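note to self: dont lose this again. the chain is below, predicted strucutre after it. 126 aa total, dont forget to put it in the shared folder this time
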Amino acid sequence: MLVVGVLAAGGISFLVQSGMLTWNGGHQSATSDGPRMVRVVYINTGQIMADVLKSQMNGTLTRHQAAEMGHIIGLTVQEIASGYAKQGDIVLSRNVLAAPESNNMTADALAVVKARLAQRFGQTDD
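---
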């Protein structure tokens, strides 16, 4: 039984590959309709978190406030990354050893994060 199944699968595979049997699976080439040149944007999320934590080292945050801050930071960075992705860019946030300074959007993202945190919690800078 096993031999019959293997022979049948091999035969069907041969017929599909030779074009004698059509497959309606919708085949597309990996190189079709894709962008040829994609800009890679880098946002150092670890640096953003470290900068925010450093600015809050006075110890007055409760656990609830710290959790809410982390949530706001995460959502803000995701929104920023989604904006770049909608433009066709790839966004990286970790494990980047080097990136051109023109593609490093960490400072811009940090400014947006700090503005949102200031709206919710008041002053967040040193």
